[in-house]
Specification:
With 113 residues, the protein is mainly alpha-helical. 85% of the residues lie in helices and 0% in strands.
Length: 113
């Protein structure tokens, strides 16, 4: 059995793989946050939002779907990128755009326009 030194262990970690893992983690967290929002509206919605219950549930479900699609797209773009800069720019850019688009869909559906 050979002992692995700290220097050898450090060489096995790549910055590209770490960046990809961070994008994937951020995608999972973004979807979890939108799913938690959807769950909160489902639990609290009918009682607290008397006139908006249906549109709020539809809006949060649509937001959740948009954020999930953005997370999948960001993960796929991060896997296909060849540099750390491309992974971070494409992955997090798509995640931020998907989050903003999801919130916009939520607000449009709740406001009724």
């Amino acid at each position: 059995m050979t002992a692995v030194t700290e220097e050898q262990d450090r060489k096995t970690v790549s910055r590209l793989g770490t960046a990809r893992a961070l994008v994937l983690l951020a995608a999972v967290l973004a979807f979890a946050a939108s799913a938690l929002l959807c769950l909160a509206v489902l639990v609290l919605g009918p009682g607290a939002l008397k006139g908006l219950a249906g549109s709020a549930i539809l809006g949060t479900a649509a937001c959740c779907v948009v954020v999930l699609a953005a997370g999948i797209a960001a993960s796929l773009l991060a896997v296909r990128a060849r540099t750390v800069r491309a992974v971070l720019a494409r992955g997090f850019g798509v995640l931020v755009g998907g989050g903003v688009l999801g919130l916009a869909v939520l607000l449009l559906l709740v406001s009724g326009t």
